[in-house]
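User: Predict the complex.
Assistant: Input components as received:
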Amino acid sequence: MLNRTRLILCSITLFLIAFPTADVRSEEKQNKPELPPAAERKVDFIKDIQPIFAESCYMCHAADTQEAGLRLDARKDAFNGGDTGRVIVKGDSAKSPLIHFVARIDSDKVMPPEDEGDPLTAEQVGLLRAWIDQGADWPDSVALPEEGDPWADHWSFQPIARPDVPDVKNSLWVRNPIDAFILRKLEAEKVDPSPVASRPTLIRRLSLDLLGLPPTPEEVQAFVYDERPDAYERLVERLLASPHFGERWGRHWLDLARYADSDGYEKDRPRPWAWRYRNWVIDAINADMPFDQFTIEQLAGDLLPNATLDQQIATGFHRNTLTNTEGGTDKEEDRVKQVVDRVNTTGAVWLGMTVGCAQCHSHKYDPLKQREYYGLFAFYNSDKEVNIPAPLPQELAKYNAAKAKFDKELAPLKAALDTYEKNQLPQKQAAWEKKLAATTGPLGWTVTKPVSFTSAGGGTLTKQDDKSLLASGVKPVKDVYSVVLNTELKQVTGIRLEVLTDDSLPNKGNSRADDGKFVISEFIITVAPTGDPTKVKTVALQNPTTSVPQDKKLPITAAIDGKDDTGWSVDTKNVKPGRYVATFQIKDDVKLDQNATLTVAIKQLAGNSATLGRFRLAVTGAEREKIAQLIPDHTLDVLTIAADRRTPEQQKIVDNYFRSIDSEHLKLKAAVDAQVAKTPKYPPTLAQTLAKNDEARKNHLLIRGDFLRKGDEVEHHTPDFMHDLPAETKAPSRLDLAHWLMAPENPLTARVTVNRIWKNLLGRAIVPTEDDFGTRGDPPSHPQLLDWLASEMIAQGWSRKQMIRTIVNSATYRQSSNYRPELVSRDPANAWLARQNRFRLEAEVIRDSFLAACGLLARDIGGPSVKPPLPADIAALGYAGGVKWQESKGKDRYRRGLYIFFQRTVPYPMLATFDAPESNVTCTRRERSNTPLQSLTLLNDPVFFETAQSLGQRAAARHPQDKTARLRYAFQLCMARFPTEEEYKQLDALYDDMLTRVKDNNDAMDNLIGDPKLPADNRAETAASVAVARIIMNLDEFVTRE
Amino acid sequence: MDPLRQHLTQTRRDFLATSASGLGTLALASLLQQDGLLASESSDPLATKQPHFAPKAKNCIFIFMAGAPSQLDLFDPKPKLNELHGKPLPESLTKNVRFAFIQKESAVLIGSKRKFKPHGECGMELSDVLPNLGTCADDIALIRSMRSTQFNHHPGQLLMTSGVPRFGFPSVGSWLNYGLGTASRDLPGYVVLTSGRGASGGASNWTSGFLPSTYQGVLFRNKGEPVLNLNNPGGVSMEMQKKGLETLSSLNQARYERIRDPEIASRISSYELAYRMQTAAPDLIDLSGETKATLDAYGVGRTEEGMKFGRGGGKGTYHSFSTNCLLARRLVERGVRFTNIIHASWDHHSNLNQEIEFNAKMADQPVAALIKDLKERGLLDETLVVWGCEFGRTPLGENRGKREANTGRDHHPFAFSLFMAGGGIKGGQVYGRSDEVGWGIDEDPVEVNDLHATMLHLFGIDHLKLTVRFNGRDVRLTDVAGNVVPGLLA
């Protein structure tokens, strides 16, 4: 039946897709059967229309089933339409898809479908048409079907009412209301609760549940011998206050947040700052941030007024979504996938419901319609991902201190410069200008007009208005430019080459090459008497200078070294295109007269068209030592204008030039610059956050979830089956969505949340389908307890710690977890909680327990992810060897499991083996499998063997002579209790056996001990201790809570 | 309680029924029985279970050619395409189509350099780079009308391996082990063998998704330590291991007697299987018992002569892939339900001719040898061999931006080829037809969900009935679609 319905659903959906409202008009023009005429009388909905719906449509489109999301028994839904849009266009029956379907206009798109019901008569269609044409009046009295909404009765959608605490017979057992609810059921079944667990068991249980770490022997001793009546409650308080609490409960939250350290998909790039959000989670949980605030900050922290850095970091929750950077991925498709993931995660985490199905069609079993899905989608559709600077408090403090010191050092240097600029510079500059006016001889370069010019490679050089030459046309790989100059100077001492940019050149740069590179292999000047080229003489050049950073391998000197295979170029990788200047001194004076010609040859032989695109030549006759001080052209131009007639911009040019040659100014400026170069760097730490896109995107229903097939436009709205947004909400945002989720009217979030907390402490949830509070999920085993807890959580201001405190202080929690064979057949799942549950520890807690027991654990909290040793060929499994695993050093190898770098395509094997989530989608429930690979990991994985070595060494070092004490100590470090006599006997026998085997085997001894630096004493005993420690650590008890 | 939970709870009752322990196990099973904890039927999660109807196939070897080999150069000859070489496709075909890299406006068809000729009695046409597979033609059902919905590798691979192009769903091998268990007592029921560079999907290609990790693929290496952490740490001899595990078992049993949680019994069993695997897995990869003729037939020890590009998985790939094919047969002999051979180097956006020649040379001989070897040993009838990939490649040449020569093909989900042999497949046939240039499908399209439905059918499973309740939905391998393809069945 199920599958049949699915098939029908699909076919109907396709049918609707192919027939959206917008297409109706064009369809009409084609040769299709005509619509029957509308009835000509006034139509009454109740008398004429509803019976047609009931007879022909309700089977698939009413309260029970809503194929294609269409419901025709409720007014609001009927007018809203189905998954693909409206079917009734009020006032225009010809445009109403409903009419086209029932009139069977297109044989592929008929309603009712073949085999599902008889076709409507022409008269019936006519009535429907008339009803629509007359305005589709649907009276209030029948706006809703008689039987009401089928979802209305579902337990989880009912308001949370605080139930009265029941009366029970054995009231002495009851420590708080939780116990009354549990005991009522037990008494009804005539079953006694289990006795309270032993103190060692209790402290181990609490430590693992609240911190994810086993207690130390000292902690166990202290608790076991604590005779105060509130010893247990004191222990609970100590654990709740521990900073490791945030790690343990933060990891639970990270499952939901699908936290990982990489993008996912093929490329799976690392996310180096993902951990900043993890830090936030740990801190927030340690600070017991109320769950409503915790929610609001993660979903919409960026939208809070004056959002703090922490509130922005919190939005990293929805940055854990995967990103596909595989070549050829459609960016919009991936963005839509990300939004879908955010909607689905929100539904799963806060509503305990799978909303994802509604992405493609209205939900089959739950009341979420497809258009409502896209109403939720709209809340996340106009976001963007931004990484913001997010220094840790300690980083910021360090930076602020360094910055204050720096500022203090900079201030006097700046003051000195300012004072000089204000008090002395103007006078000096005035004096300089005055002197300049009196100077004879050239002050600057003389731009020289080229008389003739050629490109040996066949390019075209064209003279520009500014006397520069621009290359175009043929683009030779190599080239030699020859330019004949005409100058009025009688004596030339220097020559200047300006390399210029032009819009016609690649990237508007300096060169003809696409990469902007040019190389001047040789820069050569020749002189010849006009008309007698045979007497041509090369002029020697010297002391070249350049205005820009040069390519280290291609210095300016190489342009005049006489070698064609060397040359000058600019460091184009780091220098932007612009005006570059090179100057050369002429070694011996060149005297020119009317009859001499100066020719410049620019050899450019590096290949790849590394040739000049535009350049200009200038000469000077100034004394050689003054060439370097020649004033730049534009400055010189301005200087010719009288000071009082210069524009401010022009004056600025002169000022800047003078500052660049005034030695005192240069000195003071250099001191400032040197200090500025030491500016402390702002901490590099970033955080991945979500922010509102500058432009709001239009929101559409996506037909079949396909990002290319947009259906009707959809407004932001929350699902109809739940409470409404506050009426005054205008332009709803993510922040409104977050507030809506945490509103007291929401019956789901509090139930879902306490159910998860309960599961983490009792091993079994009250609603066993934690991920499905909908109609297909399991009902709660203790509905009133669930509601009491939910109302209690709200009453306690959404305090997570208070909820945990209440649960762990209950007598229910404190029970022994020993199996009760007599109850197995009556209550196989232990739903009544006549005992606590035993369960295998989670992947991270297993790692942490091994490291803690042996003493290797690094207890640092927070910070970047770490990379403990990984088998060599595991990382290679990532796509095309793209995954790099740089093993962490020192104590980072021994950090807790939640800090292990989570590479989505190559999950850390130990975590995957022990059912840690893959973190591709939100994980609301971890599996707890039991496989031989787990056994092999704990026995043989080098990381775990190292913990066995440390445990063996630790015990041997503590009790070097006393075997019994040593073995008992190793056992106690793991189990928080001493071995029983029988257990000890077996360990003792194993120890003796191992000792015999290693005693005469130095290799085995060395390998078992591992650390060659350990003392030579008692080596065999240490080795045997390691071998036994390894077995102790593999006991079921050690990896099980209990 | 949902069916999965219920199943798991039951299965944990006891894990001992089938254990031929290498350790001195006490009579735990009877203890459990006394307590009424032992379910009536065997409840090891991997114990063999009855299918819905009589199966043809017992085991599956799925050879996953990740990256998407060009069907036009291996399996699907297109004389018309060669004729139209250099011509554009009519716009009507490419109009609403996306490409990963092709520039639509200037793209042209490129013919295949390969020569096709008929093989076997059935006359199946195959490319000249597959001479050995040609000799198996009469055992092969070649599907030339496969269709996918996915354009990019990772989602495409997820669809082909788990029936859903999204994360978190169990792969085919997990479903089979969940539904049928495995006959292998000393090895996992789902083994993965890889060669070449990593596939786009990484470990998500053999994930158990929302099923417990009991059902996930276990990666075996074909040299050194075949399974992660299989070897004892230095200093721990096998005798010491045995001795230690005996104590471990005994202490766990004592605890079981006190606490009576069946999960403890299950853990004891896991350690016993782990111990057996420590012997069985090295034995698996120890090929010293194979004849030289067998090794040569598979091409074990081959080198890559004339390798020019260093691609296709690099040096040692031929040997590694050949070894994996041979190991697949050895896994079938040991009752392993599902073996996944993954080779990820078929993404030929450029240099198609040289690269495909290199890869085909790697795959042709060992895959053909595997089919023949299984047949000779009488194992082919019950072993389904599949050559699969996430999609195919375009008849258009890949003219991505700035690339001067048109030497490769882009991703193409609309029509591609794969083949199956053995396990109840009707060999010696070509199923379905793509159009004359290989753009779309002319006859008998086979969707990925159809392929999976057919595979499950061969194992005696009704794909509509093998479901697990997850997130409020009865999830199945074939998602919400899938039809068995009767034409493929013997």
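Residues 488 and 592 of chain A are 9 Å apart (CA to CA).
Let me know if you want any component modeled separately.
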